[in-house]
């Protein structure tokens, strides 16, 4: 199956819109793992195994691995997900975006080296910078649109003029451009932060049923009910609601995997009560 088919199947099979972000921070690991040379893999794999039946996707953040020279652990982790939990898609959170052959190599890195099913992308350089990802019709291209950080307003709310002379916010232009021009293979998603529910509703109106990756619940304080009301598709799905720290570090003790499962289950159930 391609990414979109995997995602739709996971929504249905696990009755879940939860995406667990895998952002390992060794200083927050349980004491028993801190001196383990394979701690990054072991920690993340335990979280995956404890939550795989409760999620629609996993989202490892590449910088959390690469900063510690743990790229090999990331490769093994994605392979572990595919082998032990087939059908749960993996989104590599890398926010790539570059031109020419560099973009092609970034696509090769994400999909062929790491084995990801989708990757997050920065659309700022334009279509040619993401075309190698769009061309991989079986993979997901997850483009930043209205992000969850406080500084998002610095650029994303700027008013721009389109080719017809109409004016709209930059994030609205990104949403419309991706939905109408870049999504020929039906493999695009957009990132819209949970901390901006009105903008989330705005993006949903623009893009129809295109899936939206929504970070910002949990540690960042996004409201689950507002996310579901403003972001769900006509079918009651259409969302990947991402939580990282609130699930990964639900416990600092030896029960960290069980606590992560409890946190993921609580989030799934909270979401499902709203849709």
Automatic annotation (TrEMBL):
It holds the Pfam family OMPdecase. It catalyses: orotidine 5'-phosphate + H(+) = UMP + CO2. InterPro entries: Aldolase_TIM, OMPdecase_AS, OMPdecase_type-2, OMPdeCOase_dom, RibuloseP-bd_barrel. Keywords: Decarboxylase, Lyase, Pyrimidine biosynthesis. Pathway: Pyrimidine metabolism; UMP biosynthesis via de novo pathway; UMP from orotate: step 2/2. PROSITE patterns: OMPDECASE. GO terms for biological process: 'de novo' pyrimidine nucleobase biosynthetic process; 'de novo' UMP biosynthetic process. The active site is at residue 95. Residues 17-260 form the Orotidine 5'-phosphate decarboxylase domain. The keyword Lyase applies. Its EC number is 4.1.1.23. One of its GO terms (molecular function) is orotidine-5'-phosphate decarboxylase activity. SUPFAM superfamilies: Ribulose-phoshate binding barrel. Gene3D superfamilies: Aldolase class I. Belongs to the OMP decarboxylase family. Type 2 subfamily. This is Orotidine 5'-phosphate decarboxylase. It comes from Mizugakiibacter sediminis.
